[in-house]
Amino acid sequence: MTPERLQRILEGALMAAQRPLSVEELERLFEGDASRPERASIREALREIAESCQDRGYHLKEVGSGYRFQVDEELAPWVSRLWEEKPPRYSRALLETLALIAYRQPITRAEIEEVRGVAVSSHIIRTLTEREWIRVVGHKELPGRPALFGTTRGFLDYFNLKSLDELPTLAELRDLDQPARE
Amino acid sequence: MTPERLQRILEGALMAAQRPLSVEELERLFEGDASRPERASIREALREIAESCQDRGYHLKEVGSGYRFQVDEELAPWVSRLWEEKPPRYSRALLETLALIAYRQPITRAEIEEVRGVAVSSHIIRTLTEREWIRVVGHKELPGRPALFGTTRGFLDYFNLKSLDELPTLAELRDLDQPARE
Amino acid sequence: MSDVPSVLSPASECVGEDEAVTARVRGEPLTLTPKDLYIPPDALEVFLETFEGPLDLLLYLIRRQNLDVLDIPIAEITRQYMKYIELMQELRLELAAEYLVMAAVLAEIKSRMLLPRAAEVEDEEDPRAALVRRLQEYERFKQAAEDLDDLARLERDIFMAAMEPPPMHHEKPLPDVGLDQLLRAFREVLGRADMFSHHQIQREPLSVRERMSRVLASLGERGHVEFCALFTVEEGRRGVVVTFLAILELIKGHLVEWVQSEVYAPIYLRPAGPHPGWDDAGDTQPNT
């Protein structure tokens, strides 16, 4: 077996394996063959392979359990776009909750629930809080001292508003004909 | 972006993707970049990449759902030793059903049964569907609206085909009017 | 092939000389093995199970004798076919109904061929034609299946070349919301509220609501705020009015309360409710 052929076989195996391969595993590829390469030749071939990738977009890397090919880190900005997720969409429940907080703040969860007719999940409140669109602005003097929610400056910034005044009034809302296209 | 750099990025993405990538998907890698390569440059780069692999252990191949790198077929004897398990074998019944769907799509189960002379087991249809080689492409306007089956891109990918045109030619049906024996 | 009976000599098909003896099938299965089967008796069961159906078995019988599909000696084939069926029964192989249907088809073709042909209906199709077409069609796909099996395929001949992606950090993108979406949500929820309750939703200046939040928030941060500190002169008259309305709304809703220790002393605003360190009568100056 020529050194070139040995390199090709090792290269093919390393690319097909989808996991790192140790020198022992690479040796076993030749089990049953008439002429089996020495371990030293395998190591030498790995060195040659590593060198031959110099100006490609990947390199041979030795990790704990063996050798594997890895795409160069500097290509990450492009490669990572393969796994880019589409942003999820917010539920109607979340948008309604946000709208109620914006228009009727300061407002308690119970008050939101009263208007919406259904319970407001903690998940929604948490999401809106983490997004820094709402915050607790106080507590209502009722048993349990429920939190009062209001919108934040971040909310205004996100929706490009100088102040809440710029939100359409209820009357304007009602006059809105068909909802604007998505 | 130099042609060499474009090649490196495409190569890295194709190697990292673990699935074939279409030219459109490759184009999208550059979304948001200041200078985005033309589709023609991408195609040219793919040609260059294919050429540059000539004497390596792998090559660039276009299959149904796009381009992928694959290990040279002649290295299969060594590479396949990486896996203890034998590759799956498929029964004649399954292959005949698959062949009928591939060559005669869209086709109903009853039409498959008519040619094969036996019932097609649900197990086979399920296996083919689960492997994502076939799918229901429509329904025939008949009582019961039977499903029409067709093959998928995954079928092409698995059988190393770029399109259905690359299937082996179906043997000619000999005309009955021809002399019985030549 | 010269020994194959021709179509027009049906009489010669009634008895096939070479197979006459083995046609008796009610005895030991092993003795029934057709002598030209060339497979060990113990492999017979496996062998019979490999047929993909009646068409496959017929094709086998035809090919075994190197007969032309287009010129099937129906009687001969029928007899052999029946023998296999009986073998399957003897071996208690699960016999698909299709095999029996095919036997009936063969018998029908045979019977039609035995009938003398009237000269005037010469253009009548050869009774075997339909069967021949089916056999040919089946054979094409039998071949196609083999060709498919021979294609280089993943897992067996083709291995995808892949490697570890570079280290990447993924940022989960946050959903985008348009202002129109928010408005629509609000309109919908109000529409629903109208339907479910008689709740009158009156027009309220939003700036007051916003200011209510801001006043509450500043109380939350500091515990109490001097009344005057809530106003910003720079906002002008309108700003002062809005703030004042907001404070009144908050007091009306029992969200805040004000305290003043004596006449002309500074007025403080604090969240409503019990306050440790404060005199709840509200007539002492807050500790500072």
Concise overview:
The complex is a heterotrimer, with two copies of chain A (182 residues) and one copy of chain C (288 residues). Chain A has 182 residues and is α+β, with helices and mostly antiparallel strands.
Helix content of chain C: 40-55%
Average pLDDT, all residues of chain C: 73
State the major sheet of chain A.
3 strands, antiparallel
CA radius of gyration of chain C is 49 Å
Low-confidence stretches of chain A: 178-182
Strand content of chain A: 5-15%
Strand order of the largest sheet of chain C: 2-4-3
- Helical content of chain A stands at 40-55%
Intertermini distance of chain C: 120 Å
Number of individual domains of chain A = 2
User: How many alpha or pi helices of chain C?
Assistant: 8
| Strand residue content of chain C | under 5%
Order of helices and strands of chain A: HHHEEHHEHHEEHH
Pfam family, one (chains A, B): SMC_ScpB
Protein name (chains A, B): Segregation and condensation protein B
Keywords (chains A, B): Cell cycle, Cell division, Chromosome partition, Cytoplasm
Organism (chains A, B): Ectothiorhodospira haloalkaliphila
Describe the structure in your own words:
The complex is a heterotrimer, with two copies of chain A (182 residues) and one copy of chain C (288 residues). In chain A, helix 1 packs across helix 3. By secondary structure, chain A is of the alpha+beta class. In chain A, 45% of the residues lie in helices and 14% in strands. Chain C is mainly alpha-helical. Among the domains of chain C are: 41-114 and 126-148, no CATH class; 208-271, Orthogonal Bundle (Arc Repressor Mutant, subunit A). In chain C, 44% of the residues lie in helices and 4% in strands. Chain C has helices at 44-49, 54-64, 74-90, 97-114, 129-150, 179-196, 206-222, 236-252, and strands at residues 159-160, 225-226, 256-259, 268-271. Classes of the chains: A alpha+beta (182), C mainly alpha (288).
